[in-house]
């Protein structure tokens, strides 16, 4: 199930979320962020209560010792959201895309340094190929990509903390949004932009930010506790690749040769890593009576 959750999250971020937020161009990034937090809190809270009532979810609140880690993850995802919205509002889509191409490499580094995850030889080669592809794009940009690096590091830290904290995906996301909720409400009270716009279309689009924000992050958190951080990081290339395809096919943007080279190198790396991962899952003997790993999708 780990791969299913990860792909659901990354496909949403690569296809659904960009289209949604492109339709909210009339609002400032700070206002959209505040609205996302409010509607996400309401959606996650309602879903958690519904599942708890059906005894399909245990709500271990307060989370006590895990509060500090969840505060860190809430801060990281809040910063990441704001940077992404800023990039869209200021027309820095190239920087945003580059950030999410750099992010998997940061996740791989965290997995190796913090969690002690080891790479098999072919996997190390795959990471090197992906790094070469990102280096092409960075060199082509011609300057230090501060926004891209900030996006990459903030989301990689979020993934690392969510893996370490080990709480249920929905419960953890609900705790994070509730921590951010007071700041969001304060912004909406002080903001000249209306919390509930009079135009029905704008109101519906803002309300739907709760759904398009909560579900991918819940899926991502569910994948984080089931997959190695290295595997989760490399799978993230699905999202910016979908975003690249969307930009070209739907919005008519041009793909420069360096970006095309990066695209080819990264997908070659993914193919090599996937081949090695699934080859490593095959049992050494024809028959195995008991499998110790409870998650057969863990790679």
Task: Give a structural overview.
This protein is mainly alpha-helical and 299 residues long. Helix content is 74%, strand content 0%. It is built from twelve helices and no strands. Helix 3 (67-89) packs antiparallel against helix 6 (146-165). The longest helix is centred in the N-terminal third of the chain and has 25 residues, at 29-53. The relative contact order is 0.20. Residues 283-299 have low confidence and may be disordered.
What count of helical segments does DSSP give? 12
**How far from one another are the termini?**
11 Å
Report helical residue fraction. over 70%
Structure classification: mainly alpha
Shape: globular
SSE succession: HHHHHHHHHHHH
In round numbers, the mean pLDDT is 79
Q: What's the total number of strands? A: 0
SSE arrangement:
Blueprint: H1 2-22, H2 29-53, H3 67-89, H4 93-113, H5 121-141, H6 146-165, H7 169-190, H8 200-207, H9 209-224, H10 229-235, H11 238-249, H12 257-281
Features:
mainly alpha, 0% strand, disordered C terminus
Concise overview:
Helices cover 74% and strands 0% of the residues. It is built from twelve helices and no strands. Helix 4 packs antiparallel against helix 11 and helix 7 runs antiparallel to helix 9.
